[in-house]
Write a structure and sequence with these properties.
One of its GO terms (molecular function) is hydrolase activity. The chain is of the alpha/beta class and 182 residues long. The protein contains five helices and eight strands, in the order βαββαβαβββαβα.
Length: 182
């Protein structure tokens, strides 16, 4: 089996109901991410946590030094797990993630986290472009409703559209139940 790493993307307090960017179905996504995280820990796989910060601004989402940038306690890193901070949607951009994975001879990445339409999408596509086999655990990811030109797009539709696009060409998209051994 190819060496793989779990990448836990942006499961941070800012996305909770009390945060500046609350997501729909976040509790379910966190619970499923925790199951995937536990399995990765039990399997002694590489785990990388990604946290987003918005530099030089103090009132926007993910402002440096605020509780919004903290990783949700249920999926917080433990000793031995790497945490990288990013400033862009793509977790590979200016973070050292690729070098970290390559140094560990990782060939496959498993991705969980937030937001499906932004950082999950950007990170999964970048991982594919770098040559990694990519699996996104769709029910361990969350997003929010969007709108454009007066068209309101429900969160479930946003999530489904982005998962379908990733599954079309960028990797596997599976549920937690289908991913984890019985």
């Amino acid at each position: 089996m190819a060496k793989r790493a779990l990448i836990v993307v942006d499961l941070q307090n800012e996305y909770e109901a009390s945060g500046k960017l609350p997501l729909e179905n976040l509790d379910q996504a966190v619970a499923n991410a925790k199951r995937v995280l536990t399995a990765a820990r039990d399997g002694e796989e590489m785990i990388v946590h990604i946290r987003h910060e918005t530099p030089n601004l103090d009132v926007v989402p993910f402002a440096i030094g605020t509780s919004g940038t903290e990783i949700i306690a249920a999926v917080a890193p433990v000793d031995g797990e790497t945490t990288l901070t990013k400033h862009y949607p793509n977790a590979f951009r200016d973070t050292g993630l690729k070098a970290l994975l390559d140094d560990a001879s990782v060939q496959e990445v498993i991705i969980v986290g937030a937001m499906s339409h932004m950082c999950i999408d950007a990170t999964a596509r970048a991982a594919f472009d770098f040559g990694y086999a990519v699996t996104v655990i769709d029910d361990a990811c969350a997003t929010r409703a969007l709108s454009i030109n007066g068209v309101e797009v429900p969160a479930a539709h946003v999530h489904a559209a982005f998962m379908a696009a990733l599954a079309f060409a960028y990797g596997q998209v599976v549920s937690t139940a289908d991913f984890l051994p019985a």
